[in-house]
From TrEMBL:
Domain Cation efflux protein transmembrane residues, every copy: 39-231
Gene Ontology cellular-component annotations: plasma membrane
Entry's transmembrane regions: 41-59, 71-89, 101-125, 141-161, 182-200, 206-223
Organism (species): Campylobacter sp. CCS1377
Keywords: Ion transport, Membrane, Transmembrane, Transmembrane helix, Transport, Zinc, Zinc transport
PANTHER family linked: CATION EFFLUX PROTEIN/ ZINC TRANSPORTER (PTHR11562), RE54080P-RELATED (PTHR11562:SF17)
Family, per entry: Belongs to the cation diffusion facilitator (CDF) transporter (TC 2.A.4) family. SLC30A subfamily.
A single GO molecular function term of this UniProt record: zinc ion transmembrane transporter activity
Domain Cation efflux protein cytoplasmic as annotated: residue spans: 235-305
InterPro entries listed in its UniProt record: Cation_efflux (IPR002524), Cation_efflux_CTD (IPR027470), Cation_efflux_CTD_sf (IPR036837), Cation_efflux_TM (IPR058533), Cation_efflux_TMD_sf (IPR027469), CDF/SLC30A (IPR050681)
Protein name as catalogued: Cation diffusion facilitator family transporter
Membrane topology: Multi-pass membrane protein
Localization: Membrane
Amino acid sequence: MYEYLSHQPLIKQTCHSHEHHSHEHHSHADAREVDKKILKISLLMTSSMMLVQFVYSLLSNSLALLSDTLHMFSDVFALGLSFLAILAVQKFNNEQKTFGYFRLEILVAFINALTIIISAIFIIYEAIEKFINPSSIDAKTMIIVAILGFLVNAINGFMMFKGANLENINMKSAFLHMMSDLLGSLFVIIGGVLVYFTGIVYIDTILALILSILLLRWAVILLKQSVNILLESSPIEVEKLKQAILISDEIEEIIDLHVTQITNKMYVATMHIKIQKEKIAEFRFLSRKIAKILHDEFEIGHCTIEPVWEEKNEKI
């Protein structure tokens, strides 16, 4: 009904015409269809490779390979959740969910980050155990399986990089899982080669520790992003937004400003603006002017603006 009351994420900054608004919705739907197809293929490939790696990590007695397998399990979990989140956004409707199921994407990213952290802590624990009680490793098996894992992760990562909407935190979390697992497979290959030629089994453990630290770093960044959204922290610098609105001479003050993020490119703003009572007739024009600033400069597609003014020292 109103161009400043969008209930869909914005794909890109455009004018406020109804035609463009429909185009944004269509583009976003197309993007999610592509993401869903990529996730489906990645989920199938990763699940198959995870089972192979798990069996051979036990047979080869490689901690690095086992750590990569555990991370691949978290990949399967992450891809599955990401896929279900997209299905929920596309298929489910509930009038109590006034902004739909878009926030599920953020919740999935939060859970994905936690699974990476748990996996990394477990790997660190196992690495310490291996330092205390070292054991022999079948380096040849370790290398072959790691190469297969590397190829699967490389294909999945390439598909996501080329086709997925990585601005979406849900897809970004799935992509980070793939990239960290790709790096993990590379570490295992290098470790396997070094162990094979030197016979020093501690190399495998050291590489597992390095991988764990990298996983923790990525997971903490992702966790911070998702927590900020879940806590409804403003994704936009509030003072900068105020200054952009206060350029209009008709506005005396901005009161009770709130800016929140539902999901990627879906920002919501609410505010009261203090104006002179004689300017109230111009409020409709003024609110549309503010809505255009919010949309064009800050990509805020949904805003609610209310006027207040002073009369006999009271706000009405």
